[in-house]
Amino acid sequence: MRPIARTTITAVTALGAGALLALAAPVAAHAHVTVTPGSTAAGAYTVLTFSSAHGCEGSPTTAFTVDIPEGVMSVAPTVKPGWTVEKVMVELDEPIDDGHGNEITERVGQVVYTAGTPLADGYRDTLEIQLRLPDDAAGERLEFPVLQTCEVGETAWNESPAADGSEPEHPAPAIEITEAEGAGDGHGDAADSAGHDASAADVEAEATAASEGGDVIARVLGIAGLTVGVVGVVLAVNARRGTKA
After folding, report:
1. Which fold has domain 32-181?
2. 0.70 exceeded by the pTM?
3. pLDDT tens, 206-215?
4. Which residues, in sequence order, are bridge partners of residue 113?
5. 3-state DSSP call for residue 145?
6. Which of 91, 60, 47, 87 minimizes the C-alpha distance to 203?
7. Which residue, of 15, 165, 184, 227, is most buried by count of CB atoms within 10 Å of its CB?
């Protein structure tokens, strides 16, 4: 094989590897059903954004069923055009007081989003649920198992990390609960009397920031991939010059 042909193949191979790495980075970032924000404060109202960009082995998605952890008593799914949403209630083992003299005997156990038109594989969509995190959950990891139902088959995203911390094949979306913030500032009471609007606005901004942070990581990995390709081209050109000499 002539030297020019070898250097050309080397350059093409390097560029191809860089391009594949650049393309793979954003795909890997959305490989599962994910949830943002990644962490939030105990006792806070938060808007959790669930996202997915794949079906069940290529089959379009028809529904997402999100399990709500025990201890979460206030749940308000966001109405989404093109989807129907249902709150599935479950009875509490023992009634509890909501702090305003009212007795609560049931809670939202699941939120079910059903697509009016199945979501094709390879297209991303998001679903939002506002809820209040338990006051005593600081330091805990709350999982929100999701059942993804498709035209053909279904996938249960409900597995916890292994004992060594490695990620399972079908991880459950989860958030890490941090220490409560602004204790005694009255935000909880204000949210109760105003429909939680102020708190929801704050956490939506946090969720957006977290999502953008993930996109930045994907971009950095993409740039790294392209850099690999450029380095390959430079090495190929230098090799060609050395051959001529």
Report:
1. Immunoglobulin-like (2.60.40)
2. no
3. 444 444 444 4
4. 64, 85
5. coil
6. 47
7. 15
